[in-house]
Design a protein that fits this description.
binds pyridoxal-5'-phosphate; Aspartate Aminotransferase, domain 2; alpha/beta; Aspartate Aminotransferase, domain 1; four-stranded parallel sheet; 10 helices; three-stranded antiparallel sheet
Length: 270
């Protein structure tokens, strides 16, 4: 195990990690996974209570998923989707369309690239509609949408953003409905409605130059699991329709059952 730790210190740039900290707190040297458990090279088991940053929904080494991957590897491991298609991508896209009620599925490589794609699709839509001036983006204060340059522009967490500020495009942040920020005696619902009024005040003035409003539905994860009332999403949907602005639901952290419904926006009945 010690050998692996010294090799990782020498060779691997660990993300979201101050490399100096690795000297005092070495990373876990993981040998294998088993459902919710991680097992290190010395055989010690750890409960992966954060699902490896909420990615691993179905457990490590899930036998059904592993069997499907192994089966697919024997047929074709990868082929580009530009100019080619295949049964698994069509079947998955059909299922996603049914689940989401949306149209075609576009595939990205991770959460940040999904954000980039959504922002670009929105701006591209307005360009095709001959309204190129609608290319601005609005997001919530304390929101997180990834750390590539476009995604970081709509992220609002200084820890991730401040260093790269000179590289980023200007975007606008409106008040977050984070229920913890409600005034004494104010309900989460009342506070959410007040924040929705602030969104409307912004859109009244700026819809003409706004392509989209991007939100983390129900829970702002990276800022500290800030929960808010679903009425905010319902109002945001109405306002985005009224002012002709796209609503982008960033379900990267909350989608696929993590808040009890398949997608978090379902809890706002939108
Ligand atoms: C809401 C949200 N959007 C985007 C991302 C970025 O995802 P990735 O780390 O896969 O780029 C995350 C990551 O946690 C997230 O929580």
């Amino acid at each position: 195990m010690d050998d692996l730790i010294s090799r990782t210190r020498a060779a691997v740039w660990h993300p979201c990690t101050q490399m100096k900290a690795l000297e005092a707190t070495p990373p876990l040297a993981i040998a294998r996974g088993d459902g919710p458990w991680l097992v290190d090279t010395g055989g010690r088991r750890y409960l992966d209570a954060i699902s490896s940053w909420w990615v691993n929904l179905f457990g490590h080494c899930n036998p059904r998923i592993n069997a499907a991957i192994i089966d697919q590897l024997g047929k074709i491991e990868h082929v580009m989707l530009a100019g080619a298609t295949h049964e698994p991508v069509v079947a998955l896209s059909e299922r996603l369309a049914k689940l989401s009620g949306l149209g075609h599925a576009f595939y990205g490589s991770d959460g940040a690239s999904a954000t980039e794609i959504a922002l670009k699709m929105s701006a591209h839509f307005w360009r095709n509609a001959r309204q190129e001036e609608k290319n601005g983006f609005v997001s919530l204060r304390n929101g997180y949408h990834g750390e590539t340059v476009g995604a970081l522009s709509v992220t609002d967490i200084p820890l991730f953003k401040a260093t790269y500020a000179p590289l980023l495009r200007h975007t606008v942040q409106v008040p977050t409905p984070d229920a913890r920020l409600a005034e004494a005696g104010e309900t989460a619902e009342g506070f959410a409605l007040r924040c929705a009024d602030a969104l409307e005040a912004h859109l009244v003035e700026h819809a003409a130059e706004t392509a989209a409003f991007i939100v983390e539905p129900l829970v702002q994860g990276a800022t500290g699991m800030a929960m808010y009332h679903p009425i905010y999403l319902k109002r945001a949907r109405e306002l985005c329709t009224k002012y002709r602005v796209h609503l982008i639901a960033d379900e990267i952290a909350v989608g696929f059952g993590r808040t009890g419904t398949m997608f978090a926006i379902e809890q706002a009945a939108i």
